[in-house]
Amino acid sequence: MSDSREIRRLDPVLEPGHTYASVTDKIAAVVLTRPLGIGWLAGFTLCFSVVMLLTVAIAWLFTKGVGIWGINIPIGWGFAIVNFVWWIGIGHAGTLISAILFLLNQKWRTSINRFAEAMTLFAVACAGLFPLIHTGRPWMAYYMFPYPSTMGIWPQFRSPLIWDVFAVSTYGTVSLLFWYIGLLPDLATLRDRAKQRYQQVIYGVLSLGWRNSVRHWHRYQSTYLLLAGLATPLVLSVHTVVSFDFAIAIVPGWHTTIFPPYFVAGAIYSGFAMVLTIAIPLRKAYGLEGFITMRHLDNMAKVMLATGLIVAYGYFVEFFMAFYSGNKFDVFLANQRLHGPYSHFYYALLICNIFTPQLLWFSKVRRSIPALFVLSLVINTGMWLERFVIVVISLTRDFMPSAWGRYSATFWDYATLAGTLGLFAMLLFLFVRGLPAIAISEMRELVHEEDHK
Amino acid sequence: MTEQRSLLHGVMAEFETPEQLLAASRKAREAGYKHVDAYTPFPVEGLAHAIGFRWTLVPLITLLGGVLGGLTGFGLQYWCSAITYPLNIGGRPLNSWPAFIPVTFELTVLGASIFSVVGMIALNRLPQPYHPVFNVERFVHASTDRFFLCIEARDPKFNLAETSRFLQDLHAAHVIEVKDEE
Hints:
heterodimer; B: alpha+beta
């Protein structure tokens, strides 16, 4: 085992030589003292203008209705649902890192969990937007919640769409609570170190008067562990419920039992790709290479490889079961994926999700930052294509040829997708400068543990 | 004397390492001090035990929240689907409980999480903007790199001179009086 020890020495979880004060200084300085650089301003401005495009797209949608999109019967679920499933999947990596890796006592999660959780929240916000604006009458979206009304009607609880409402809103709420609880000691750290009055007031209010008392910590650790235990089945349930939106329907290509595990694996796959897409520029821009080390990038690449293989298995089983079942609609759909009008999407999906990521078997690739960055973008594209293939091919080719159709997205579809990307990036830009992107108190604990190994 | 005591929150000792604080906390407890609190920049293993704080209500509150959430979830669906608004959906029974599991599960998790977080914050008596320990200038280091032990004035064994000497003898880097301005 000298090999693995060698790797540990070369790639520590934390750069050696750090003290409690140095990790605190370095992370807090990004928020408290560092001036706004030209890079941040340029990036924020760009993202903000894309968010303006989003508001225009939504305003026009509310004015004209969903007809401005490319959807038309039989394709009622176009980009809106593709984007919803994609975004919600991206969020899953944040919860996996913060909850599941915490329960598994994986120390390398410490420096990436905070921004991964922030990524989860922002991704869920982007995802939540789509079903809402897809309803056609978004001002009546509250009909989905059970509330006593004079009409005396209630939601239909046997429908996976209503399960989705509960799953996604619970997921958003629990992620927010988990994130805030993790932030509490760090907000107190910022309050104690803030020099400007406005910073002292803002962080003082947000930290609720946290004073690092051992009694506080004891209850805090209890809650943190319990939330991790609760978030673990929750995150698995959320994409399972999202997959039920498809799997419970009888549409060919959707009605399969492989959907829940394969959706969850795909969610984690795309989520880790997004964590890498964010981590690589973040560590570079703020000089955090000592905290987010090659070890982290390497580990995340391995998780991507593993979940990518589960996704590949999912594609294989879909095909196998189509032919094994002998169901002629399923066989027809499988052929449509390979030879139908959208087959180029399917081939692109195979290249992005199955073939290219096999490069991650090579440690040279896992240790090359540009290669990882490009691969993370490729995988995210691939996962988006997967959702497109699932939604569009099945809906354009269901049982009766008279119900077949074609789908192509309009400018407003693309504008909304781009707009949510802008919203996501803009929120990340604000987050990086407003809150500590790495959990400071957990890093101090890590320093303590590294010193006493 | 009593007036002076009401203005004094306690005496605080500053340590450089968590091990020193842990040893000091044990000694303070052995010496018979009951109203003791420790302040550390990160959770220190065994410290809660050392000051005599053994268990917390948080897990019980979380369980309660989970049970309430789950019962609410199932009860809501049963009441909607079988009692107040019975609809025949594809010939399924009105109480089609397998279809009610996802929402029941989600509300269980939601209830447990909210109770856990709110319970933790409430038990910690937060939000609490003012606390006497914040009057100590060096206390800002409690969120960076120093470890503090505070013996509070309400402790029956507390005596300013004696307690200060006791803390001094534990090799504290600083021993500071904590004033209460209220």
